[in-house]
User: What shape does this take?
Amino acid sequence: MLKRMRIPEDDLKILEKFVQLPSEQQDFILQELTEISPTTPLNIIEKRISNKSDYKFEDIHEFFKFLINFYINFFYFKDSIDNFNEEVIIPSIILHKSKLKLAEQDYENIKLVSAKILSLDKNIGIISKIPYLSEENPNNYMKSHIITDLRYIFYNDPSEIPDYALIKHTFKIDYIKSRKIEEAFYTLNLNDIIELKKNIERAIEKEGSLKELCKKNKINLLKEEDVNGL
Assistant: This one.
């Protein structure tokens, strides 16, 4: 358990704004959230909520981002909602109390709202884990390119026309590490490219098999892009 986990100030301000909404608007928004499925475009829900509440569309979008962060923090905490409130939420508010307009008498309401939010495990909870699982490795692929060229082998006397050459393949991969774009370069020969092609084709076949398995067992298969820009 992460006893010293704290919620960032910006997220607390979003929580504060939500807590200060009239209770009927809170209930309406939370009810709308129960209708989200991990495959539903969130912008549709955002527009619907903004049209029926005091929240502007951009505020709703920020609220969804807050929900994702909130659930990820709860996921890492690995304990009960009550303990999450007592050991993370309330200490975080106390830490940033000079920047918030929340009084001690608001704490019970905050705990109640927090518990309601964290009860949305079948939709927001699932959505929050998509980026976590997508980025569980330290390096995440972005794009790649293979550069193929002909390299002449010159004699010691560079004025002599070369009689020999090599075909060279350079495999360039752009990847994301710690939110920064990095590059890596690998020299390949034809056998390497053939092996790489076979591995990619095998991975595509395995994905097809897993899709059939999910269909057979009635498992809803998500795509990583279903995070919907959050």
Observations:
- The chain has two domains: 9-134, 139-227.
- The mean pLDDT is 84.
